[in-house]
Amino acid sequence: MSGASLVDRAARPRYRADRVGTRAHDWVQLLKPRVISLVVFTGAAGLAVAPGPVNPVLAAISILCICLASGAAGAINMWYDRDIDAVMQRTATRPIPGGRIPADETLVYGVGLSVLSVALMWLATNALAAGILAFSIFFYAVIYTMWLKRSTPQNIVIGGAAGAFPPMIGWAAATGSLSVLPVVMFLIVFLWTPPHFWSLSLYACKDYGRAGIPMLPVVRGARHTRWQILLYTLILLPVSLTPSFMGLCGPLYTVTATLLGLGFVACAVRVLLEKQDDAGVSLVGDRAARVSFRFSLAYLFLLFCGLLGDHALTWWLS
Ligand code: HEM
Ligand SMILES: CC(C)=CCC/C(C)=C/CC/C(C)=C/COP(=O)(O)OP(=O)(O)O
């Protein structure tokens, strides 16, 4: 046997395994797994704080459906945005612009998973949960991605509603109805989205400008964006405390929401006061905006943990 074929035999299986692994990884990346992990967590929280006993199998199926649906919407977003993703540094290596997954296969994948998730939700729970799930996919994939994202700097404010529906979906899956608390949870995520995204957009501004996407700092400038971030954190703080004012939760949630809300406002004030030029562009590498973006992720996760902990405590004490 020649040396070359020995090398071939040794190399071939490893090459195949790597390719299979890479392809599987790319199919998962189309679902934006890191982003949807928090989306799914908020949906699970909505389900967990809903009143009445929930069948654990149906709860698990509902959470799986929210996961599949948000991933599917992400895949349709990547299919539609393949032109701008190729231009932006942050997204240029995604599976479609990277040439690793064909665009048409991504569309079939996104639409297929959308149909599967909605049908499964309907079969396992009820029409209300399935209906809001379908509407969320439509809102993110069509209203936000295909329309608002490229046409208005308010794109993420209105489009952010898509990512705010999961707590309502979780609650509806558990109860077949809606109530004040899931609507407040919707409002919290809705008002959280602008400071979450605009913090990131302050330091990703060049990317969006190059791709021609009218994100707020591109259109209205960095200084205006800094004020808007502060405005939304200031509105978010009292809204996040509505469950306390309405007697829908106890002191654990109230303390958590107050501390986190003040922390988020403090991050926004730092973003506003950061050393900047006349146009509001940071002179210190957008340090405050980076901290604010990271804090936004911790904020939402911990706030909903506070709600879950409060709910568990009330149940345990009763
Ligand atoms: C229109 C609304 C939103 C916009 C435009 C937006 C935009 C973004 C962008 C551009 C990133 C960076 C992603 C990357 O580089 O891969 C990001 C990260 C993230 N977003 Fe959002 N987001 C929105 C809503 C949400 C919602 C509703 C959630 C969850 C409830 C969320 C959770 C996350 C998480 C967890 C990350 C971090 C991902 C990582 O660590 O790589 N986002 N978001
Ligand atoms: C239940 C359900 C269907 C929920 C869908 C909600 C969802 C996936 C929300 C996440 C929002 C998100 C990833 C925005 C990214 O914006 P972008 O697409 O402008 O970001 P990009 O530049 O990174 O692609």
Automatic annotation (TrEMBL):
Other comment: Carbon 2 of the heme B porphyrin ring is defined according to the Fischer nomenclature.
Originating organism: Acetobacter nitrogenifigens DSM 23921 = NBRC 105050
Pfam families: UbiA
EC number: 2.5.1.141
Function: Converts heme B (protoheme IX) to heme O by substitution of the vinyl group on carbon 2 of heme B porphyrin ring with a hydroxyethyl farnesyl side group.
GO cellular component: plasma membrane
Pathway: Porphyrin-containing compound metabolism; heme O biosynthesis; heme O from protoheme: step 1/1
Entry's transmembrane regions: 35-52, 58-80, 106-124, 130-148, 155-174, 180-205, 229-246, 252-273, 297-317
Database matches in Gene3D superfamilies: UbiA prenyltransferase
Bilayer disposition of the protein: Multi-pass membrane protein
GO molecular function: protoheme IX farnesyltransferase activity
GO biological process, one term: heme O biosynthetic process
Keyword Cell division: no
Compartment(s) where it occurs, according to its Swiss-Prot or TrEMBL record: Cell membrane
Protein family per UniProt: Belongs to the UbiA prenyltransferase family. Protoheme IX farnesyltransferase subfamily.
Gene from which the chain derives: ctaB
Protein name as it appears in the record: Protoheme IX farnesyltransferase
Keywords associated with the record: Cell membrane, Heme biosynthesis, Membrane, Transferase, Transmembrane, Transmembrane helix
Record field: catalytic activity: heme b + (2E,6E)-farnesyl diphosphate + H2O = Fe(II)-heme o + diphosphate
InterPro entries: Protohaem_IX_farnesylTrfase, UbiA_prenyltransferase, UbiA_prenylTrfase_CS, UbiA_sf
